Amino acid sequence: MPERSHYDVLGVSPGAKPDAIRRAYLRQARRWHPDRPSGDPERMRAVNEAWQVLGDLRSRAAYDRTLARSAPRPTSSARPAGAPPPSGSPRPAEPPPDPPTASPPPIELVGFRWRWIGLAATVVVAVAVVLIVVATSAIDDSDPDSPITASAPVSQSRPEPGDCFLIGTTTLISVACEQPHDGLLVSWVPLGAPCPPDTELHWVRSAQEAVCYHPPSG
């Protein structure tokens, strides 16, 4: 089985834009982080490695060149299009004659078929919309559009004052402040306690506490 590329790990195409790669990294980090119920340390390491390469324009360009060199090339034994066959080779068989053209169906039958085709297309679109809505509702609704300035692996420790973090479904995930994050933690406070001015409050369900934090600038 061929080795998966960094694009495969993040679930994007080789032509994906930097913003799409950034959002894919955040989505995979929240999915495979060991603190989450669905976490997987091996997949998290693969996600971090893919981001360290594809999150930097120079590293990504060098990686793309490596992929291009390793791609299979067509063999030189193929005969160019239009070239005559080698001497002594059998002549290709003549193509069979075209079958007789059937007479078109009556106009009423054509209209009946188009109505059924339109109904089937409507059902397919409706099912696709339902599946998209269900899949979207299952994805963590945290904001993936935080600015990115550098690449760094996600930490597994509880964030402390002065740490940056991602907001998960029931907990906070500590990350380096140079990578995408949802805020800078100022303090942990009991439920119902106020936060200092110029900070925002977020209830951490798993800890039964709240945090006061500064949201990322920009």
Question: Can you put this structure into words, describing what you see?
Answer:
- The chain is of the alpha+beta class and 218 residues long.
- 36% of the residues lie in helices and 12% in strands.
- It has five helices and five strands.
- It has helices at residues 6-10, 18-32, 41-54, 57-70, 107-137; strands at 164-167, 172-175, 183-189, 200-204, 209-214.
- The radius of gyration is 28 Å and the shape is elongated.
- The two termini are 44 Å apart.
- Residues 138-152 have low confidence and may be disordered.
Work out the number of β strands. Answer: 5
So how many helices?
Answer: 5
Which structural class do the helices and strands define?
Answer: alpha+beta
What gap, in angstroms, lies between the N and C termini? 44 Å
Mean pLDDT: 78
Strand content range: 5-15%
Q: Uncertain runs with pLDDT below 50, 5 residues or more?
A: 138-152
Question: What is the N-to-C order of secondary-structure elements (H for helix, E for strand)?
Answer: HHHHHEEEEE
Any idea what the radius of gyration is?
A: 28 Å
Helical residues, percent: 25-40%
Strand order of the largest sheet: 2-1-3-5-4
Quick one: overall form? elongated
Largest sheet: 5 strands, antiparallel
Question: What is the topology?
Answer:
Elements lengths: L5 H5 L7 H15 L8 H14 L2 H14 L36 H31 L26 E4 L4 E4 L7 E7 L10 E5 L4 E6 L4
Antiparallel strand pairs: 1-2, 1-3, 3-5, 4-5
Helix pairs in contact: 2-3
